[in-house]
Amino acid sequence: MSKFRGNRNKRGKPVVGDKAKETLENMDEDNPVLVMFRQYSTELDNKHDRYERIVKLSRDVTIEAKRIIFLLHNTNTDIESKKKSIIEEAENRLQTLVESNFKTIAKELHNQDAYQYHRAYTAGLQEFIEALTFCQFLKNTSIESWANIDKLLKYRDDELGEYNLLFPQYDFILGIADFTGELMRRCINTLGVGNVEECFKLCDFVRHINTGFLGLISPGNKEISRKAYVLRQSLAKMELVCYNIQIRGTEIPKHMLISVIESSDVNPDDDEGFF
Amino acid sequence: MDVSNPIVADIFSPFQEYINSEQDVREEIRKIMKDVEKPLREITTILQVIHHDQSLEKMHAACLKARETFENVRNGYAALNKIVPPGQYYRYNDHWRYATQRLCFLAALIVFLEKGILINKETTAQILGVDDKANICLDLEDYLMGLLNLASELARYAVNSVTYGDYERPLQISKFVAELNAGFRLLNLKNDSLRKRFDALKYDVKKIEEVVYDLSIRGLVHSPNTSEPVNV
């Protein structure tokens, strides 16, 4: 408003903003329109504030989940006890996220239409799923179903009774797609320490996931097709690694295979993330 | 799907079921929205009469007809209320957001034509038939979007009123839109579509004021009490 009035004056034309100005000046505080809008303003602010609070919580989840993933990559070692303690630490930190940030988000969403705020925390949730499935995989070489993870996000306390965090299956699947990127990195890294068998195992697992994505009928979500595309690229890299191991494994020492493969077109760095 | 693959069986099969049931709901919603969009178009057409005929009777007849047609809209939303699962309004609201915004605009236009006042959210919800429903409601931002659309329509209406010799109407519109503008300035808008749409409101205000200005410099505006030309 004030901006446009300013513009008009500059051009030296007659000030046609006078009528509006006059109306504004004559409007008293009890003007029904203003009373109405003041109420809408509160409502809108509440919504935006809640949204921002959730975004912040979600951003912290993302950061922590990325750190956990980084930590989990350190399990690439032959020392069983070290591996075990790292996984334990990761599990604890994941559990802390469930009990702190996600619980707070769930509280924010209690008695709200959670879908209205879902976009505020979907990124954190997906990153969390990525870390969680990675951790599960390293521990049990398998990952849990959506229903089991959904159970983690159910809460109960004296204040609110039973409540849960909305966890759409889309976020689960998208998190899994990201998780395959970690498997790809892991595959290259294990090769670095000469653990060839692990490479084949990882590659096989990602193949299964890829099959799952290929079998989906009309997911109707652009994000899914984009991530499935990235997944196929990761898989291609892993398959190339396996191929190289097989064909050249007899020629050179295993720990040198990594340099052979890295000098070919495998580039573990082009995915987003940490390594 | 391949059940020998545990990933597919445990992870992707449930996901496919999830997608399928969601698609079914969306299909139902699309069907219902077709039934809402038809009266929406009819009402839009009916109310266009204000731009080429200034007789009050015709305008009132149009408002009446529009209000009757809203009955079909209400039926549509009642059906929608049955389809949308509890607490999932915002999961599917892409399907009806645009139509709802247009209907808010139309309801606001009717009330303006009938009474010259700004419709509130509650009344709008009643006219659309989304009040007191378990699973659907009127989103505040959709309603506000409707009001901004109203301002654009009124800018056009102001111009056309002059063409048809109604020199009082632009004054009423000018005051009305100025108040609306003042109201919107109380809101803290985020950098979203509503904000963008609000930024365009000033052009409507400007257009209306230019009409008022043109009338006033030619002495065509009479204050209602004195019927003397006034300086606006």
Describe what you observe in this structure.
The complex is a heterodimer of chains A (275) and B (232). With 275 residues, chain A is mainly alpha-helical. Chain A contains eleven helices and two strands. Chain A has helices at 2-10, 18-26, 32-73, 80-99, 101-109, 114-140, 146-152, 169-192, 196-215, 222-248, 254-263; strands at residues 154-157, 161-164. The radius of gyration of chain A is 26 Å and the shape is elongated. The two termini of chain A are 50 Å apart. The relative contact order of chain A is 0.09. Mean pLDDT of chain A is 85; it is low at 1-16 and 266-275. Chain B has 232 residues and is mainly α. Chain B folds into two domains: 1-138, Methane Monooxygenase Hydroxylase, Chain G, domain 1 (Up-down Bundle); 148-232, Translin, domain 2 (Methane Monooxygenase Hydroxylase, Chain G, domain 1). Chain B has nine helices and no strands. The model of chain B is unreliable at 225-232 (pLDDT under 50). Chains A and B meet through helix 1, helix 2, helix 3, helix 6 and helix 8 of A and helix 1, helix 3, helix 6, helix 7 and helix 9 of B.
Please tag this protein with its features:
heterodimer; A: 275 residues; mainly alpha; Methane Monooxygenase Hydroxylase, Chain G, domain 1; 11 helices; 2 strands; 74% helix; B: mainly alpha; 2 domains; 9 helices; 71% helix; elongated
